From TrEMBL:
<dbReference type="Pfam" id="PF00149">
    <property type="entry name" value="Metallophos"/>
</dbReference>
<keyword id="KW-0732">Signal</keyword>
<dbReference type="InterPro" id="IPR051558">
    <property type="entry name" value="Metallophosphoesterase_PAP"/>
</dbReference>
<dbReference type="InterPro" id="IPR004843">
    <property type="entry name" value="Calcineurin-like_PHP"/>
</dbReference>
<protein>
    <submittedName>
        <fullName>Metallophosphoesterase</fullName>
    </submittedName>
</protein>
<dbReference type="InterPro" id="IPR029052">
    <property type="entry name" value="Metallo-depent_PP-like"/>
</dbReference>
<feature type="domain" description="Calcineurin-like phosphoesterase">
    <location>
        <begin position="55"/>
        <end position="235"/>
    </location>
</feature>
<keyword id="KW-0378">Hydrolase</keyword>
Amino acid sequence: MKLKRRQFIFLSSVSAIGTGFLSWMLAHKNHQSADITNSITAIAANPAKKDLLLRFVSVADTGTGAKGQYAVAGAMNAYHKKNPYDLVVLAGDNIYNNGEIEKINAVFERPYQVLLKQGVKFQACLGNHDIRTANGEPQVKYAGFNMKGRYYTFKRNQVQFFALDTNSNADLKNQIPWLEKELSLSKAPWKVVFGHHPIYSSGHYGVNQTFIKTFTPLFQKYGVQLYINGHDHSYERTSAISGTTYLVTGAGAGTRPVGRSEWTEHSAEKLSFAAYEVYPDRIEVSAIATDNRIFDKGIIQLKSA
């Protein structure tokens, strides 16, 4: 059959449109398939943490109600969205300047309202500013700090925590025997102690020789793997010292300069908090700044020399 020129051009156009439409359909289908594949890949790249026993965070020297505290709280919220946790170790100086409990809404409940509404539990200890009002008793009684006393212990999964009163007026005569007894009775493979004051630090307050003599022999004897504190407004992680890693997380609202010592693994003058993922054989520590970036990562072994 002979086609006139106009008929040929028309049919050629229809054919081109059809071919183009078919190509678009195939490309669109391939694009959808690629999207699905990419989604599956993304899910596979973020699998559930195998053997994770507990995730928690720590922060200290927070209670200002000012911009720095809100910045760190925002980073804690962002981390919680991606890596849910339900425990915050709050290592003292919870209310500046003088531990006035009437400030609790401004310096605790409002800054951490997002976490509190999601059931995150804060476990606090007393700092030197906290004992300026009624020796800290209003804070000990405050339900939101979950304190069973000036020093106390609690368990989460295979981790046992021991909160200390490290203040200058602390009742060490009774607290030290209590700590030794609780450590000796503990069947938990992981033992974490926290208090406000540093034992090893390269910050303003430095090393506490009295606490080295008082506490570290017990840590070594009973296998305490981690001690967390504030007071120095900085971040610092030590190498294991006689089996214990010492971690300063006192930059929860403000910062001060910090140096380095022979046992320092990492130190930084950054508004930040620390996050911990506990596994049967290790704790993975991450230091997180207000830009939500991890600026230090470390491993604490279950048993280290």
